[in-house]
Fold Carbon monoxide dehydrogenase.
Amino acid sequence: MSNELLKSDVTAEALIAKAQRDGVETMWDRKAAQKTQCGFGEAGVCCRICAMGPCRVSPVPGKGAERGICGANAGTIVARNFVRMIAGGASAHSDHARDIVHAMHLASAEGPFKIRDEAKMRRIAAEWGIEAADTKETYALAHELAEMALEEFGKPFGTQRFLTRAPQQRQDIWKRERMEPRAIDQEITTIMHSTHIGCASDIDSLLNRGMRASLGDGWGGSMIGTEFSDILYGTPKACASESNLGVIDAEMVNIVLHGHDPNLAEVVVVASKNPELLELAKSLGAKGINVVGMCCTGNEVTMRHGIKIAGNFYQQELAIITGAIEAVIVDVQCIFPALPALAKKYHTHFVSTSQKAKIAGDMYIEFSESDALNCAYGIVKTAVENFANRDASKVEIPNFKEPTIAGYSVETIIDHLDKVVNSQLEDKLGTVKPLSDVIYAGVIRGAAGVVGCNNPKTEHDLGHVTVIKELIKRDVIVVVTGCAAQAAAKVGLLTLEAKELCGRGLKEVCERVNIPPVLHMGSCVDCSRILDLVSRVAVEKGVDICDLPVVGSAPEWMSEKAVSIASYVVASGINTYLGIIPQVLGSVEFTELLNEGVRANVGAVYVFEKDPLVAVEKMMVDIEEKRTALGI
Ligand code: XCC
Ligand code: SF4
């Protein structure tokens, strides 16, 4: 790999060396301490669902125990473990969404929670059939809509409201397969029930249930999370930022926002601009307060405020190791339990704020939506005061950062398309037609969503960056979310200049529309924006999602949330390429079901391919086959 490909590595290398000098451990030390990881766990054939177990069956048919004590075979055990991962992931996305809707329920003209995209709120209210959605008083409507959204989590009857955004053909498939998700919580509960000892053992049925719960995530919880965050905090527009650990500023109070929930992050951003706190920072010798983002909380505030991206999942420890962080403020998800101990080796305050993610050894300042601004003020003040404790001799900030453009919500993409294609027209089209037209014309061969985490089973960011670069070279436009988006950002792929790395067709489109070839669509719940975008293209062309030349890719995923995402993407009709093999290989039957069998149900499959270059070749074959079938 060239240095140019992985500038991020230079960052990591320097800080891992510093960690050794400072005598602190990182994820790579702990990975090494694990030695060889458990083969049974890796194959997914270890079951500890009941206390007759744990039972582990042989991942190789005909060798060793083939059944657990209750008689569950490898297929059942693997399938149960897999769909329980979906339940975990769907619960995380959806519970996050619920907090956003609760904040909207508290919204008032006085703030701090306000309606910032009123037009979107009225659009969704009308979509959900609220009467007089266009005339009702803003906050009366907000509270009514929030209550309706809260019902989506636990309503006793009916299916998810956003399903009707999908093309009719897709909705028909979900109906046929009995996959239309009912209440979000119910689908997750059903999985936990079905996978209890002595319930489902049929792998097709288990996967079906898992997919239904995942659809309750993608078209339910995540979509609610995205849409209601936009209503509350504003729908993202293209904005300039910078990415990588070089955004940490030695002369300022540095605060890392890490986790997933914009409720806390938004008010921290407000508090960081408070004149009293800025004055306090200056009185302590700092030039100001520098809030930087990590993981998806980072993505949320980058998209809406241009807050700089310190890094993605694997960099959370490295940020602290720079010695220049006054506070890491976390909300929920993807936060290493290792951080409090690491922070104590430096002067960094590790502040956790949610009961849902109370982390041992933390400084706990509970965030309450009902007292949001005071809370945030207190947290930021703690960080600022901590500047006095910084040890200059321990500071080492790698000088790497890249310019970044983020903020491509579906609305912003449509807006950009409108500006170019219809500059002469008075009325804007307001649709994705120009995008679907360039795809159908073959100027762009197709589109790919590259998403997901980092995973030390593979070299960090290399999978993301390779897949993205190879795709844009082949005229495939790429949309990114989550840690994949940040990986792209750190090597300068989220810039207008990145068009130089594209094939001719994509380059021309980027020039005309004035967009990067890789569009940052947000955090992981914002994968729902990708569903929305693809659905609009399909509806506009009168086809199903599975007919379109689009692929999903998660080169370095690790979380349960990613399993849920992969599952709803497949269940939505998009072949999904996983660079990390899920823990399912212990069952030939279940592996075949994921890789091929499920195509008969939903028209798409999970593809396992570790090698990013080979994965891209497979994606291109896939895309070209879809084009041929469409006759384009
Ligand atoms: Fe977490 Fe969303 Fe994965 Fe990154 S990409 S490691 S889930 S922060 Ni969602
Ligand atoms: Fe063993 Fe069956 Fe219990 Fe699993 S559910 S631990 S396979 S007895």
